[in-house]
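Appendix C: a fully annotated inverse folding record. The material below is reproduced so that readers can follow the format used throughout the book. The structure is listed first as tokens, followed by the designed sequence.
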């Protein structure tokens, strides 16, 4: 009788154990924040759909998306993905926004989201960088306005092949927009670099903001990048890595 009970308990617990060890059972729900910058919606969404069965997405556009940072809505998604270039924010919205990430909501910030919030310095701290539309002083240093170039063929170099974010990705070619002169915070961990003269050298990095892992990727302007298999893999592994904090490293 005792053996039967034990067997019953083992089998009863098996699905729970399997579910806990199999991330495919519970997808990572990403919330993509957009607004104040146009983009090709269909190929962008195709890229999001192709990130694997383990990742599902919803899109929220600012300013309505500010509601999603509120405590009562934070359980509706697992990872934030920024693809916005929003500028206006009230003190209260800024407090709730920063607190959401500081308390542990992981974040992947893409491309023109580096250009958002010109007048909110805490945003620079959240993503670890900032594209300046006009001369801007950060931590006592004045930076001139940045520049960009569209339609550049260039090589992306992977800093470490052992990093879980860039695992399985070799240096690759990309056709994208470059930014030059943007601020990158001291102490971020570089993931990707380039030697293209129209770009900053560091074009992808990770940092910790409060309890959250953050990854910022400069690339991601248009369809060629959305369809680039290396970029898709990078985005997928970025989302997985910021989400699985504590399980890797
Ligand atoms: Zn762009």
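Designed amino acids, in order:
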């Amino acid at each position: 009788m005792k053996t039967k009970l034990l067997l019953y308990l083992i089998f009863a617990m098996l699905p729970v154990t399997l579910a806990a060890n199999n991330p495919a059972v519970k997808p990572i729900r990403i919330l993509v924040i957009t607004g104040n910058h146009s983009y090709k919606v269909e190929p962008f969404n195709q890229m999001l759909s192709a990130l694997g069965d383990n990742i599902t997405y919803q899109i929220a556009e600012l300013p309505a998306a500010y509601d999603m940072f509120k405590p009562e809505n934070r359980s509706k998604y697992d990872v934030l993905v920024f693809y916005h270039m929003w500028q206006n924010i009230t003190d209260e919205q800024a407090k709730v926004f920063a607190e959401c990430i500081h308390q542990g909501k992981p974040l992947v910030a893409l491309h023109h989201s580096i250009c958002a919030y010109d007048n909110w310095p805490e945003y620079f701290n959240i993503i670890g960088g900032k594209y300046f539309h006009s001369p801007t002083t950060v931590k006592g240093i004045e930076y001139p306005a940045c520049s960009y170039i569209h339609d550049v063929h260039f090589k992306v170099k992977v800093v470490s092949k052992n990093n879980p974010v860039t695992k399985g990705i070799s240096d690759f070619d990309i056709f994208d927009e470059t930014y030059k002169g943007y601020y990158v915070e001291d102490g971020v961990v570089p993931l990707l670099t380039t030697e293209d003269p129209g770009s900053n050298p560091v074009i992808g990095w990770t940092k910790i903001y409060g309890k959250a892992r953050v990854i910022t990727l400069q690339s991601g302007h248009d369809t060629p990048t959305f369809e680039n298999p290396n970029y898709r893999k990078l985005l997928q592994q970025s989302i997985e890595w910021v989400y699985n904090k504590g399980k890797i490293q």
